[in-house]
Amino acid sequence: QVQLVESGGGLVQAGGSLRLACAARGRVLSTYVMGWFRQAPGKEREFVASISGSTGMGDYGDSVKGRFTVSRDNAKNTVYLQMNSLKSEDTAVYSCALKDGSSNMRIPFAYSYWGLGTQVTVSS
User: What integer pLDDT is reported at residue 94 of this predicted model?
Assistant: First the structure.
């Protein structure tokens, strides 16, 4: 049984920062790709970032590149999403997901396990 639980969401003013965490139970994350996706009301689910299970290389969507950073802490079996310079357009429910294999991929269908998500609201 694999469980992914996100935390760290909340309300922040534009220009501020938040750090999301995704803690896993039932699976060691170090060799797998972990992705972050977001979905705002009335919009499709959007790829945000992922981290490779082999090289640790991060991949980022164009809208967040240069502002967000994905990382992992193997000792805590947790992945993080550091979000800086937040904009109102970043408001969404953010979910983490696990993909089998080690190569980054942006397609949601490639991910096998999902957390329930955490709300991020950015006010102007």
Answer: 98
